[in-house]
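Write out the 3D structure for:
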Amino acid sequence: MSNFDEKFFKDLLKEEREECLKGPGIDLELHEAFVEACQTFQDAKEAKDAADADLAEINRTGDIDAKAEAEEMQKMWTNAMHDALNRCVETAKPILEGIDLMEYDLEMSLLRTAVLTRASPKGLAKFANESDLHGQLV
């Protein structure tokens, strides 16, 4: 069995993220603005999905009185989601304009960051400790 734990993978993810940011010299204020805009988009998307589900339930039950309000909420969250997406794109532009990805050797850091994020440190630790083969794969 391997001795990988969740902390190992969390630390590795932190290192890879820092490497991805440090490599092209991304302005941390621009990065924070981008992350905040993307979180706002995610929040609006979740609210829109909930409004969609509410409207579908109202349509299923035939509650005419609640339908107009549900449609208004759906419209409001759809607009908020589109506005947040546009803000996300706008905050990304100065970041992308300021870097030349060909200048930096970031492929492996980006790949490791993607794998660590998708699989999660906890999931990778569990997988790595299931058997010696899994530990070697990791």
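Helices lie at 6-22, 28-61, 64-97, 107-119, 121-128, 132-137.
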